[in-house]
Design a protein that fits this description.
The protein is α/β, with parallel strands linked by helices and 451 residues long. Helices cover 43% and strands 15% of the residues. The strands form four sheets. It has a seven-stranded mixed beta sheet with strand order 4-12-11-10-7-5-6, sandwiched between helices. The chain has a four-stranded antiparallel beta sheet with strand order 13-14-16-15, with helices on one face. Strands 1-3-2 form a three-stranded antiparallel beta sheet. The chain is globular, with a radius of gyration of 22 Å.
Length: 451
């Protein structure tokens, strides 16, 4: 399947195959890609696998879906990758190219050395990465982790499938924060979970009294909450709320899956207190991934948990992960490369958010409202008047703004008048042009002048 790598998960192979088709398109014109059914037959994979690959490319802004027509290559996508970097050095994921280069450099050096003992290469790479992650999450003599308590998977989807099956939760009820990280929400859907959402108070924080009522009334097997930074809102959870949720969970036999996918993106740096500090470690799972920091070449996800059934379940699944890549990631963790690049990424993301917020105030005025995020890639924007969001998304297709309707971050009827905005363009001029299109789209759909 084209440029797929040994050990790739199924949808990653489809993803790499689609990348080769995108390269052929060369960004010269709207280029229609094969349909889901065509690719399913051609590559002998399920429709769900093809859909996962297309969803990832769509999230990256490299393809877009036209209703009843199919998927097309974005015309602003250059052959071989995401949009061109800005003259100032900005890009969609600013520090990612450097980290990917470092990853490949480590891999090449490791391949030349080949100075391992008799242990299988797969086993060596996995062991070293699990050791590095255990060291990273160990904080003290009373909060420590061992390598055997770290479990690896090709991506978040595969990770959640194994965890839910191991804990006999698959098909059951799970409670998530709202709005929920789209990656987690889609993975839960594919696992057939009944998803409930944590009630919110007037300030947008978790309503603890209503949460207690849900835990009492519903057969909730797992609560999924952010470690410290909620996405897409980019809001930090207060230490008081963390402590209250921890105390509440102590009254119920409910697993806590702490979502640590985005905690490194807090603009002020990762906070000292996390939700994990307030819960019974016997009921604690911590989920993370390398994709946000390193990029699409390292989609691997991991979970830390002490339950014996997890070890058995991951051993039985026996994921075939690229061993050199695992070992290269372990080296990057050990040398502090990921930590240093995360610092640069946080600084640039904060600058981007400040620019985006300033331009929104200038061009859209009172038509929208928002709170500046405290971390992450996304600005959570509320439209003050009801507007058909599909038209807004279509109007901004191909611009410097990646737009996702807020309703996609919920399986219930919530957040319908919100947009999740991500600036993926090349500079301030491209951002201003995109916001002008947004203002025009709002004017057209509201039936009155902007401003």
């Amino acid at each position: 399947m084209g440029r797929s790598l040994p050990g790739d998960y199924a949808y990653r192979k489809v993803y790499h195959y689609l990348e080769s088709l995108i390269d052929e398109a060369q960004g010269l014109e709207p280029w229609r890609l094969p349909s889901l059914r065509t690719l399913s037959r051609r590559l002998r994979v399920s429709l769900a696998t093809v859909q996962s690959a297309y969803s990832l490319l769509e999230e990256e802004g490299r393809v877009h879906c036209v209703p009843r027509s199919g998927y097309f290559v974005r015309v602003d996508v250059q052959a071989g990758g995401p949009p061109l970097p800005a003259p100032s050095g900005l890009s969609n994921v600013p520090t990612q190219p450097m980290l990917e280069r470092s990853l490949f450099t480590h891999e090449r050096r490791l391949a030349r050395q080949r100075a391992w003992a008799a242990a299988p290469l797969e086993e060596v790479g996995s062991a070293r990465l699990r050791n590095a992650l255990a060291e990273r999450y160990t904080r003290s003599s009373s909060h420590y982790w061992r390598a055997e308590e770290v479990h690896l998977a090709p991506d978040v989807q595969a990770l959640l499938e194994v965890v839910l099956a191991a804990l006999a939760l698959r098909g059951g009820t799970v409670l998530v924060c709202s709005p929920c990280c789209w990656q987690v929400l889609r993975a839960l859907q594919r696992c057939g979970m009944r998803v409930l959402e944590v009630p919110l108070n007037a300030y947008g924080a978790a309503d603890l009294q209503a949460l207690a009522g849900l835990l009492s009334a519903e057969p909730v097997g797992m609560l999924i909450m952010p470690s410290c930074l909620s996405m897409p809102q980019g809001r930090l959870m207060s230490q008081h709320d963390q402590q209250q949720i921890g105390q509440l969970l102590g009254e119920y036999p409910v697993w806590l899956l702490e979502n640590d996918l985005d905690s490194e993106l807090c603009f002020s740096g990762p906070p000292a207190a996390r939700l994990r500090d307030w819960v019974d470690p016997r009921w604690l799972l911590m989920m993370g991934s390398f994709e946000a920091a390193v990029g699409g070449e390292a989609p691997y996800a991991y979970v830390l948990g002490r339950h014996a059934t997890l070890t058995e379940a991951f051993a039985q699944r026996a994921f075939q992960l690229a061993p050199l890549r695992l070992q290269a990631l372990a080296l990057m963790l050990g040398k502090g490369e990921i930590e240093r690049q995360s610092e640069k990424l946080r600084a640039e993301l904060q600058w981007r958010m400040e620019c985006l917020g300033q331009q929104l105030r200038l061009q859209l005025g009172e038509q929208v409202s928002f709170q500046m995020p405290e971390g992450g890639w996304t600005l959570w924007l509320r439209l003050r008047r009801p507007v058909p969001l599909d038209g807004i998304v279509a109007a901004l297709s191909g611009t410097a703004l990646r737009v996702v309707p807020g309703g996609q971050h919920s399986l219930q009827v919530r957040h319908q008048q919100y947009l999740a905005l991500r600036w993926v363009g090349e500079g301030l001029d491209a951002l201003q042009q995109a916001l002008e299109k947004l203002a025009q789209a709002l004017e057209l759909r509201c039936g009155r002048p902007v401003g």
